[in-house]
Amino acid sequence: MIAKKGVSSKKKVDEYNNFSFSAIRGIQAGREYYSIMCQLKLVSKIFIFNESGLPPELRAQRTLNKSRIPEIVNYINDNLEDYTFSSITASIDGDVKFIPAENVGMHSKVGTLLIPMDSRFVINDGQHRRAAIEKALELNPEIGNETISVVFYIDRGLKRSQQMFADLNKHAVKPTTSLGIFYNSRDSFSRELISLMKKVPIFANGLTDVEKTSISNRSNKVFTLNSLYNSTKDLLGKKGKQLEMNSHEKELVIEFWNEVYRQNKEWKKIVSEEMTPFDLRETYISGTGIILHSLGIMGYNLMKRYPKNWKKKIEGLKNINWKKDNLKWEGVAIINGRVNKSRDFLNKTTKFLSKSIGLQVK
Length: 362
Prior knowledge:
Number of helices: 14
Radius of gyration: 28 Å
Number of domains: 2
Strand content: 15-25%
Number of strands: 14
Helix content: 25-40%
Shape: elongated
């Protein structure tokens, strides 16, 4: 991504053909860097995706994944009053000059950043944001005056840019699926589920892990929020990403999971603290995600087939021997003594549970 020459904009171009930004100066690793605010309508004009302007060793790392761009564009347009963007990080190859604010003195951290118009800019982090902003502006030009912060690093010859790209991406950590569900206030299905799980003893009172997607051996949690989300989604036969839950479905979710809870004596012992989650995982398969997910799929088929007397049918769960050493689980949910979470074993486990309550599944 290189700078486009001759761009006119709100940021002033002085008589020496420089771009002029109000900026804050900082220090990292003994080097100065600068933070500025850039109007969205200028982002695509300043930073142009032009692979020919990049050193060969940088081109492959910065190839745009075009499939990501529509998703970001939709995020902007669907949340025009509530979208959030982190800073774009860019390197500048040019004779940059920082002029401290006059009323503060030479050591001021606030001042004016002058960047020659023939400088090259390389985005180290944020090229997909830049591309998405350009597309979003085509649909909503009125957001052009809004701003995004840009952090500039001086990099003569772009020698540090490749390492900066690697460092920035190496230490970026994507939130777990469970945490994404827990914090996503825009997803009404997530919000409702988090509220409803408080009404089911085995999911309430801190027994559901809202941060991780897998349970560690010594954890005091029973299930993950991610597992509960997927199980409940299948329980209601929901598809896609933008999910809703009406009042009838909310009642159904609470009723179903509470009925399942009533048929499982080990789950009751967890709630009454007669058994620890660790002991449950060690001895019983009913403390695993594959069982929770299978119960959700089974529940959907059960309530579809028996909408009025499904509660009576579900009582068959209390007759299941949930111990892992029960040979009936081998080849169904367990292979060679270990729980198998594959789709094939999920289907087998669902059929096993369904048959246990007298529900035939193809």
